[in-house]
Amino acid sequence: MTRRWLAGVIGGLTLGALALTACAPGGGGSTGGEGGKPGQVTLTVWSWRVEDAQAYKKIFGKFEAAHPNIKVDFKPFQATEYNNILGTGLSGGSGPDVAQIRSYGGPQALIEAGRLVPLDGKVAALSGFDAKLLQGSKGHKDGKVYGVPLAYQTLQVLYNKKLFAEKGVSVPTTWDELIAAAKKLKDGGVTPFAVAAGPDATWTLPMVHEIFGNARYGGAAFREALLKGEKKFTDPDFVASIKLLKDLQPYFPKDVVGVSVPEVQALFASGKAAMYPTGSFDLAPVLKADPSLEIGVFQAPPAPGSAEAKPVTVGWADGAFGINAKSPRQKEALELLNWMATPEFGNLVVSELKQLSAVPGATPADPLLVEMSKNYAAGGVPYLLLVDFRYGQPNGDAVFRDEVQKMLSGQTDAAAVAASVQKGVEQWFKPGS
Questions:
Q1: Are both 163 and 180 inside the same structural domain?
Q2: Hey, which family's this protein in (predicted)?
């Protein structure tokens, strides 16, 4: 397995096993279809980003203006249902022309089943993309590129500047200061950390762990040792990093194992929660809820005993757009993907989606995105379970999230979480491969 994380992109910068019981919604595009002009081709584009629907309408409007022969029909689905919907659609005749696909291990089942079109030599601009970023869109076995990378994400802590000022809290630079700030906020009637661990939100738990625990377990150095077989997930440092989540639980929302992502976004946007440990992808939906919200960002300080002395910022390649191998409109789909590899599209991703674009030459103007970029450039480390341990079953990231939810429910402890992850991934992961 080739494993190269995306540190330095700033400088240049499972599928689920169950199929849907009903047919996937929608269908492919059409020629001169609903609302289309005579001779105009309609391309359907599927995504899991429901919250970005209006932004994509504006973005694709720019494409349509310059490509009057093509109309883009953007159809988003719930993120938790998307993998199964897309898998069903691509295996039948109801899939999209262009699909937003996951990164790293996420699209491998689609690739191996021949559901996506390899883009090597078909999207010329891909040769200028950062090689480490392209790794997230490559086939694990054939090494071909199957998607135009959309963005890269970072994991940091958003905070409400107004709440911090009102409660007399400063941005913490040490772990003790972080805990002291959380206690002060909680005593002041404010939820310190907006964290969700409900049934549909467990996917966020590995991210929260990475934000607070990556420095504790050793960051990139631990990852290299793990991949070489010199360490395991049961290493005391990794166990200690998981326990940090249990230690922080008193400062999470009440009954956190029943809280959803929309609920914590609302908590933070409404000023009822002061800090939101999340990804840069959440900046847009939070500001959409309240554009006047004064948000700052900081890197979580290392906890006592951390293998890394300085704060780190976790990052990864996030999503790409690929072509349905069964689409009869591949010529037009390639026209769209070639445009999505240009700085014009990249800068629209930055301005409209408020994300860090994967396109070379696209630069953020938003002060928060600029700061996130600088933090990652200064201390970027990989999102371990996503980048390296989603290539087999059981998926290490999925095992981790479920076990952490059990820990937060009081059903298990950090050592047992680590043991479950190790037991799961060693069924398919071979160190040094």
A1: yes
A2: Belongs to the bacterial solute-binding protein 1 family.
Q: Phi and psi dihedrals of 97, rounded to 5?
A: -80, -40
SS in 3 state form for the chain? CCCCCCCCCCCCCCCCCCCCCCCCCCCCCEECCCCCCCCCEEEEEEECCHHHHHHHHHHHHHHHHHCCCEEEEEEECCHHHHHHHHHHHHHCCCCCCEEEECCCCCCHHHHHCCCECCCCCCCHHHHHCCHHHHHHHECCCCCCECCEEEEEEEEEEEEEHHHHHHCCCCCCCCHHHHHHHHHHHHHCCCEEECCCCCCCCHHHHHHHHHHHHHHHHCHHHHHHHHHHCCCCCCCHHHHHHHHHHHHHHHHCCCCHHHCCHHHHHHHHHCCCEEEEEEEHHHHHHHHHHCCCCCEEEECCCCCCCCCCCCCCEEEEEEEEEEEECCCCCHHHHHHHHHHCCCHHHHHHHHHHCCCEECCCCCCCCCHHHHHHHHHHHHHEEECHHHHHCCCCCCCHHHHHHHHHHHHHCCCCCHHHHHHHHHHHHCCCCCCCC
Do 276 and 411 fall into the same domain?
yes
Amino acid at 299: Q
**pLDDT of 247-291, one tens digit each?**
999 999 999 999 999 999 999 999 999 999 999 989 888 988 999
Q: From the centroid of its chain, how far is CA 321?
A: 14
Amino acid 24: pLDDT: 33
pLDDT at 295: 96
Range of the domain at 72: 30-152+316-363
Total structural domains in the chain?
2
